[in-house]
Design a protein that fits this description.
The chain has about 675 residues and is an alpha/beta fold. It contains 23 helices and 14 strands. The strands form three sheets. A ten-stranded mixed β-sheet has the order 3-4-5-6-9-10-11-12-13-14, sandwiched between helices. A two-stranded antiparallel ribbon has the order 1-2. It has a two-stranded antiparallel ribbon with strand order 7-8.
Length: about 675
C-alpha cells in the first residue's frame, strides 16, 4: 500500500509492514519482562541495602512500563495483520498506535538514563540485582538505538513533498497543478538519487564521464519510481505473487499452447557446431574476469596455482596494460584458457566508467584472434550498465534506425579505438594473417562485444561474435536482425539479464501493480508463503490475480491507489516516461539465441545445474518478459554457465545419435 504518513510526511514503510518487526519486538520484550519480573520476585528480599528502595521502585516501574509497551506492540501487530495491500481501511488506527508507541520511548529513555545514573553512583546491593539492572539498561539503550536506525532507514527524503497528495483525482488527471507537482517531484527525486549514487560511488573519481553516468542513472531511477507509491515490501510481495502466478500458468499450460518459433533447417544443422564454439570461447570470456573469478571457481587450489605469478615479475615483448595486480590476473588467464604466455597480444585491466578491461590472444586451436571483453565487476561497470538511454550509432552499413544502449555503446567504442588506433589488431594479424577475428564476452562484456563486432564488421567482414548472457536492452530492431548473420548469443535458464531492458522493467512494474491490486490476502501471508515457496518449492497457490473479461482501459481502484496522483500511469495512459521513443525506445538482444533450459525438477538449494537440458534456437520474443524465480540471478553467473556448457557438450558428444525431440529442442541427459 502507499507509504504511511506520520508527522506530515510520507515514510518508506506501510501500515502492514509492522507484523514481522512487531513480533520480533514482542518476543524480546516478553522475555525481557519475564526476566525483570523473575529478578524482582526472587531478589526483592535483598533490596534492603542502601539505595535499595530506589532500585525496587525502578524495577516496579520498569515492569509496568514494559507491560504497557507489550500491550501497545501487540495492538500494532494485530492491526497490521488486517486488510490487504490495497485495502488499508481496517488499519486506519495504525497512525494513532504508532504515535503512542513512539511516545513510550520517552519514559523508556528516561528510565534507562536513571538506571545508568544509579549504577554509576555505585549502589551497594546484591550482585545479581546489580547485574540485572546493568543488563536492563543495556537492553534499553540497544532498543532505542535500533529504533533510531530503523527510523533512518525508512526515512523518505521526498516524504515532505509527497504527503499530502494534491487534490488531483480521476476527474482531473491532467490538471496544471498536478503536472507541476509531478515535475517538481521528478526533479527532486533525480537530485536525491544522484546524491545517493554519488555517496555509494564516492571512491571512483569525478571526471566528466562519471558525472554524466551519475546523472543518467539518477534520471533512470527517478523516472522508474516516480509514478508509483510502493514501499519495498510491496515490491517483494509482488515478486512473490508473480513467481507463483508464472509457475501456475506454466503448470496448467497444454503442450499445444506453447508457441514455438521453429528455426530454419540451416540454423538447426549448425546447432552442434555453435554449441561447441560457445563451449570453447566461454573460457576466454571467463578469463577476462581475471583472478577473482578464477579463485571463486577454485576456492581451494586457485590461490596455489596462481600465487607464484602474483609474487613474480614477468617481462614480455607484448604490451600489458593496467593495474598493479596484473600478474595475478595474467596467471589466472593462463590457467583458464590453457594458452601460453607468448599467445597473448594485449591484456588491459584499465577500468573506468564506459571503459572496460579486455584481452587479445591468438587461439591456435580455432585459428582465430580472440578479443574478450570483461563483464560487470566494479562500480564503474554498474554505472555503465545503468546508463540505459539509447543513442544513435554511426555505422558504415546500410542498416537504418541504428540505436543502441548508451553506456554499452560508449564502452564498445572505447575498445574499438584501442584496438584500431593503438594497432593492437594490426599487430595480431601481422603474426597470424590467416586467422579470423572472434569477439566474445559475458554479461556487460557480451553487450560490448556484440556492438564492437558490428563496428568492426566493415574492416573485418569475417568477424564473429559469441555473446554469453547479453543484456536484452542493447540493439534496435533493425540492428538485431542485421546481427543474426554473425552473432550468436547463449542464454541459460531464467537468467534475468537477457530479459532485462527498460521496456521490460516497465512491464514488470505494471504486472506487480496488477497482481498486488488483485490479491485478497494480507501482505504478511504473501511474504511467508513466498519465502516458503522459494526455499522449499511446492504447488503454487491459485491466487486471484486476473479479472475475467477483456482488457482494461482504466486501472482498478486498488491499482490506482498504488500510483502517484497526477502521474501518466494514474490515468492508465500508455505514454509512460520510460516508453519515450526518443530516449528509451524498445531494444533487443543481439544475434541468434541458443537457449539452455533445465528439464525436470532440481532442488531449490542445488549449487550445480541440473543433469538434463533442453537446447534449442530461440526467438527473441521468448525473452520479452522477466521471469521470477530462485535461479533468475544464479543462471547468470559465469561459473554456472560454464558448468552447464560442460554438461551439455559432453552429453551431446556421448549421444551423437540421440533423436531430436520437440522440434528444435534437443534434450540431453
Amino acid at each position: 500500500m502507499p507509504g504511511m504518513v506520520l508527522f506530515g510526511r510520507r515514510w518508506a514503510i506501510a501500515s502492514d509492514d509492522l507484523v514481522f518487526p512487531g513480533v520480533f519486538e514482542l518476543f524480546v520484550r516478553v522475555l525481557w519482562w519475564m526476566g525483570i519480573l523473575t529478578l524482582y520476585l526472587v531478589h526483592r528480599g535483598k533490596l534492603d541495602c542502601p539505595g535499595g528502595v530506589l532500585l525496587s521502585s525502578y524495577l516496579i516501574m520498569l515492569i509496568i512500563l514494559l507491560a504497557v509497551i507489550i500491550g501497545t506492540v501487540s495492538a500494532i501487530v494485530c492491526v497490521s495483520m488486517k486488510g490487504t495491500i490495497c485495502n488499508p481501511g481496517p488499519r486506519k488506527s495504525m497512525s494513532k498506535l504508532l504515535y503512542v508507541r513512539l511516545a513510550l520511548f520517552l519514559p523508556e529513555m528516561v528510565w534507562a538514563s536513571l538506571g545508568a545514573a544509579w549504577i554509576e553512583d555505585g549502589v551497594q546491593c546484591d550482585r545479581t540485582v546489580g547485574n540485572g539492572i546493568i543488563a536492563t539498561v543495556a537492553v534499553s539503550w540497544i532498543t532505542v538505538a535500533s529504533t533510531a536506525v530503523i527510523i533512518v532507514i525508512v526515512f523518505d527524503p521526498l516524504g515532505g513533498k509527497m504527503a499530502p497528495y494534491p487534490p488531483a483525482g480521476p476527474h482531473h488527471p491532467d490538471s496544471h497543478e498536478s503536472s507541476q507537482l509531478l515535475n517538481g517531484l521528478k526533479t527532486a527525486a533525480t537530485s536525491v538519487w544522484e546524491t545517493r549514487i554519488k555517496f555509494l560511488c564516492c571512491c571512483i573519481g569525478k571526471d566528466d564521464r562519471t558525472r554524466v553516468a551519475f546523472s543518467s542513472t539518477a534520471e533512470l531511477f527517478s523516472t522508474y519510481f516516480s509514478d508509483t507509491d510502493l514501499v519495498p515490501s510491496d515490491i517483494a510481495a509482488g515478486l512473490a505473487l508473480l513467481h507463483q502466478q508464472q509457475d501456475n500458468i506454466r503448470n496448467n499450460q497444454e503442450p499445444d499452447q506453447v508457441v514455438s518459433h521453429s528455426p530454419e533447417s540451416s540454423q538447426e544443422a549448425d546447432l552442434d557446431a555453435e554449441l561447441e564454439n560457445c563451449h570453447h570461447y566461454m573460457q576466454f570470456a571467463a578469463a577476462a574476469y581475471g583472478w577473482p573469478l578464477y579463485i571463486y571457481r577454485n576456492p581451494f587450489t586457485g590461490l596455489c596455482r596462481i600465487g607464484g605469478d602474483c609474487c613474480r615479475s614477468r617481462t614480455t615483448d607484448y604490451d600489458l596494460v593496467g593495474g598493479d595486480q596484473l600478474t595475478c590476473h595474467f596467471g589466472s588467464i593462463l590457467q583458464t584458457t590453457g594458452l601460453q604466455y607468448r599467445d597473448f597480444i594485449h591484456v588491459s585491466f584499465h577500468d573506468k566508467v564506459y571503459e572496460l578491461p579486455f584481452l587479445v590472444a591468438l587461439d591456435h586451436r580455432k585459428e582465430s584472434v580472440v578479443v574478450a571483453v570483461r563483464g560487470t565487476m566494479s562500480l564503474q561497470d554498474i554505472l555503465t550498465d545503468l546508463s540505459a538511454e539509447s543513442e544513435p550509432l554511426d555505422l558504415e552499413c546500410e542498416v537504418q534506425d541504428c540505436w543502441a544502449h548508451k553506456g554499452i555503446s560508449q564502452a564498445a567504442r572505447y575498445v574499438y579505438q584501442r584496438l584500431i588506433n593503438d594497432g593492437i589488431l594490426s599487430q595480431a594479424f601481422s603474426i597470424a594473417p590467416e586467422y579470423r577475428l572472434v569477439i566474445v564476452g559475458h554479461s556487460l562484456g557480451a553487450g560490448a562485444a556484440a556492438l564492437l563486432t558490428i563496428m568492426l564488421r566493415t574492416p573485418y567482414p569475417q568477424v564473429r561474435c559469441y555473446a554469453f548472457s547479453p543484456p536484452r536492452g542493447l540493439l534496435s530492431k533493425s540492428l538485431c536482425e542485421y546481427s543474426k548473420t554473425f552473432i550468436v548469443s547463449l542464454v541459460l535458464g531464467k537468467d534475468v539479464i537477457p530479459r532485462l531492458s527498460v521496456t521490460n522493467l516497465e512491464d514488470l512494474k505494471r504486472r506487480i501493480l496488477r497482481v498486488i491490486a488483485h490479491c485478497n490476502k494480507p501482505k504478511y501471508k504473501i511474504l511467508l508463503r513466498g519465502c516458503w515457496y522459494e526455499l522449499f518449492g511446492g504447488h503454487p497457490e491459485d491466487l486471484p490475480t486476473e479479472l475475467d473479461g477483456g482488457d482494461l482501459t482504466q486501472p482498478l481502484l486498488g491499482e490506482r491507489s498504488l500510483l502517484a496522483h497526477g502521474s501518466p500511469a494514474y490515468s492508465f495512459s500508455s505514454d509512460s516516461p520510460l516508453e519515450s521513443p526518443s530516449k528509451y525506445p524498445p531494444l533487443y538482444p543481439p544475434g541468434r539465441i541458443i537457449h539452455l533450459e533445465e528439464v525436470g525438477t532440481s532442488g531449490r538449494f542445488s549449487c550445480y545445474p541440473a543433469a538434463r537440458y533442453s537446447v534449442k534456437w530461440s526467438h527473441e520474443s521468448e525473452f520479452s518478459k522477466i521471469l521470477i524465480g530462485p535461479k533468475m540471478l544464479t543462471d547468470h553467473m559465469p561459473d554456472i554457465l560454464m558448468r552447464a556448457l560442460d554438461s551439455v557438450v559432453s552429453d551431446r558428444a556421448a549421444c551423437v545419435s540421440c533423436p531430436t525431440q520437440g522440434g528444435s529442442s534437443v534434450d540431453v541427459a
